[in-house]
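ARCHIVE CARD
Drawer: 12
Card no.: 0347
Subject: one protein chain, sequence and derived structure
Cross-reference: see card 0346
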Amino acid sequence: MDVSGWDFSWLDGRASEQRPSWGYQRLLAERLAEASAALDIQTGGGELLAGVSVFPATMVATESWPPNVRLATARLHPRGVVVVADTSEPLLPFGDEAFDLVSSRHPATVWWTEIARVLRPSGMYFAQHVGPLSNVELYEFFLGSQPPGSQARDRNVEAGAARAAGLAVIEMRVERLRVEFFDIGAVVYFLRKVIWTVPDFSVDRYRGQLRDLHRRIEDDGSFVSHSSRVLVEARKPA
């Protein structure tokens, strides 16, 4: 089962996820059309950028996982996008004030200081982050109720980190969205692809819980969870 990239079409008819009301790809496309130099961080397999019709004169994407680097390169190089293989840790491999737009969809970690460094004065960070308690129902089915943990995904914490890096926060809008799984194969695929949901997941390790969840889906028709998304817009002062 190939779980590289962020193409979830294998789940069509087997799972569904409500989309945020704001339409991130459309909003990003509008901003890219007005930019002169842009960077997309943790681009995955380049699926999102591939759906954008107009790029700025300089368009760069970074990705750290080798299978995704290959996918993104094949998908985006023909469009003139430079794909840079980097590490998942800072520093970003670019000079200071290199871009007037930095974007990211669902970054694993947000390195605010580095984002601020590579932005030009008046430059914009525009992103869609995973929000707090995303798919907590699925997480707790496998791992049980958990004590409150890190609040790094809390929008107030993220806004504070952005301001500490010198960025002016314009928007941090949160929506909670319905996710529904219609068979156990869809759950396994999702957990193998979105690995931070149940970090130590494997079929062998969780065979008992998977069997219980399979019965529950058969009885109820589906398993319902909820994702959390945050629309982020922050500007570097002039």
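Annotation on reverse: The mean pLDDT is 94. The chain is about 30% helix and 25% strand.
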